[in-house]
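Researcher: For the annotation table, I need structure tokens for ATPase. Please keep the output clean. Sequence:
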Amino acid sequence: MTELYGLTKLALLNTAGYAKCVIPLNKSSSICAPNNTGKSSVINALQFPLINDLRLTEWDGHDLDETRKFYFASDQSYILLEAELPHGPVVIGVAGLGKVAGYGYQYFCYHGKLDLADYTQNKRILKYTQLFKELGEKGYAPYELKAQELNALLTGGATPFDSVLNLKMIPLNHAHDAPIYKEIFRRILNLHKLGAQDVKRFMLKVFERHMSNAKVDFYDVWQRAFEKVNRAKIELKALEQNGEAITALESMLEHQSALKGKLAAFAPKIDKALIDYSDFNDNKLVEITEQLEGIESEKVEFEQRQSLYVGQLREIERKRTQLDAWFSEFSTLKSEFELVNEAQLKAELSQVKKEYDALSHTLASAEGQSLVTLDFRIKDATKQIKSLKQQLKNLEYNLFTRMREDLSLKEVEDISCLLNHDIMTMATTGKSDITIHDETAFSELLDLISRSIEGNVAKLPGIDIPLKGLNALKMQSGDDKETIKAQINAFETSLKELLAQKEVAVDLEGKKQEKETLYQTVMSHEAALSQYAKYTTMLASIEAQELLLSQLESEQDEVEGLLSEVQNAVATIADRRSIIKANRDMLARQSARLAQVKSERIDHTLDFYSGKSTPYPIDITIDFDNLADLIHGFNKDCHELRNFAVNVSNTYLHIYNAGLTKFDGETDEYLKYQKVINAYHNLDNEQQAVERQARVALTEVAATIKGLREDLDRLRREMNSFNSGISQHRISNLKSFKIEVLPRKQLIESIDTIIATSNKLDNGDTLDLLSQQAFDEKEINRAKDHLIELATGNGGLTLSDLFDIRFVVVNRAGEQDTFDKIDSAGSNGTRITIKLLCGMLFIRYLLADKEQSKYRIPIYIDEAADIDPQNQQAIIETAYSFGFVPLFASVKPQVSCEYIVPIRTVSDGKQNWVDENDWIAVSDTESDLVAS
């Protein structure tokens, strides 16, 4: 018995609501659990490793973002496949990368058996970032794979891992069939969505390498093919109806040819004359320039002399201006100081300065003192003056001298500390201030007071008075009279100043203004004294200044005469220069005239030499005097030629607008016009050409749709072969099954009509589409209209538009049924059988013949309880015969399978769990009992 290879286990870890799930893939299995428990989630997980392109997957209406989050919510989520291959076991894994990576995932693979213990450590699932280290320590060599690399490895394509990995378990005939294989495999995992249109689409995809895969926009094809014919018909009609315009075009071309010949003869002559004139003009300009340079040299010399004399006159004028200002100033000073002397000015200045200094001193003293302080000082000074005057008056006979008669000086001074000092200076003789009535009693009093003073303390009855710190009166004697007088004078001077300060302090701002006025007066007197000194100096030099003025007037007259002579010479030079410049200007005008007519030349925009040109028969002579007029005439001829070109172009445009456009692609204008004229002279040949184009157009249309017709024939042959291959296998509970290709009759007839008519034309028949009497025109038009209508509605004709499919089923009793739609088949078992057969047969067709019998591919059948056990057993056998392993899903276990895989819950129903220990092997006896 041939050993079979392929997937053996599917395992889920921490994904899709499963804490753990392990199911067999190499034996038919019944996955059973209540509805909405996660049966489909397990099978759909196969899409990640086996389809590995989310764009081609199906998730029961959930979007791809939801799906990634559902299966790979963390970096500890795994979908794992174990496969047994000719070279040994391999593991293919899909690992979640977690929320941080946007719920992405990573493919990986290594040689070895699948052991879920390799994915845990201390009863915790390993993170993907730790997995490779753990696998490496256990002797595995894991590799990370990209989706396209895994896809190539599974289907036998080339990858960078070919030397270390071999995962081929889907041996496709062609690696580029992988997308259609994935699409069919996805539908096998979701059989309830497989319909007749899917089968038709798969059929076209599976057999497309044998087809042209053409898509024909029939309207566009017909229009493009017959557009040429219709345009040719319009061209022929335009040619017939515009004979007068074509004749006029031919006449204009003859006149244009003659003018081209003339202009072609003149153009090189004019170019040569312009070169010669340029040399003549350059030489003449050099001569004039040399003359002007000589005159300019003379002019510069005279201008320099003129500039010198003008400068001298300006200097004389400047000096005269200074002298005039001197005499004006002297006159002013004389009128002011003629009757004044220096002593008088100095005396007035001295008096004003004194007043200013006194006021300044008083202000300086008063500004730092208040009126209260000044009043106190004035009062104190007044008191001091009064005291001193009293001392002076009573210098020898006062109370102090009287007390000295009885007491020592020290005793008198101690007592004076207790008395007012003015009392001590009062007189005691005559009509004095103090009267002593009893000398003895007064003496005893003094003695008593003197004895009461001990140690600088006066101990009087009832009071002790300390004398330390009190001032004793120092009484002058008669010898001090001059000193007292000096003190009186000093106090009186101080009093006078204090009174002045008080006066200022009362009106401080007014005194400041008065000080400023005095200062300005001082400045005025000082300025007057300075101006007087200047006046005396100028008075001494008046005669010298008058002599200098006379000399300047004489010098001015002399220089003005020399300047007049130079100016006359400059005027003569200007006349000579004007004559030379006039000659230069005349030459410039001539050159400008030539430049103008030269700039008006348009011959460089015209073509004198292409096309037809008639040689000019007259000799041409040119001189410089008539060169500008000659070029002007040449330019007029050029404009006339251009107008000819415009008229010719307009005439052609009239013919073109009338519908004759087929010669417009000719790049040579003359040749284009000539072809129009020749066509007009050969109308019969043009009509025959249009007839040939009509035959070619129909042939082009037929050739375009012939490919579609041939594709249909090839598809029918391929499907006949395909159906014959099906009959070689046992087909579930059916006797036979086939998929028929049914051509759409009217569409095929329309295509065949056009192709058949084209074949007749190729065999020599004629088709005059220019006339309204074509022998099969109505039939062709009906076919054309039908094809255009269908192609326009479908956006173009494809092979898919040419046929429908039908499923033909013969049961074991020999009864035949046909179905246009799979879901219209009678029993649920029949519908599932048809869907399974279509999917399995198309996948089998994509597999290489030599390898397809070695590998088994899982298929999924949901709601399996709706299929009776006999049909279940037939489906299992049919699947095995075609290389597939069926997985049934249902609420209750189906004992037709080799394994029953129940799904249970853990963690209080929060997660699902399936362990290999949960698998239940169904014995052959149980199966036979069910079958009976």
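Researcher: And a one-line annotation?
Model: The longest helix spans residues 243-337.
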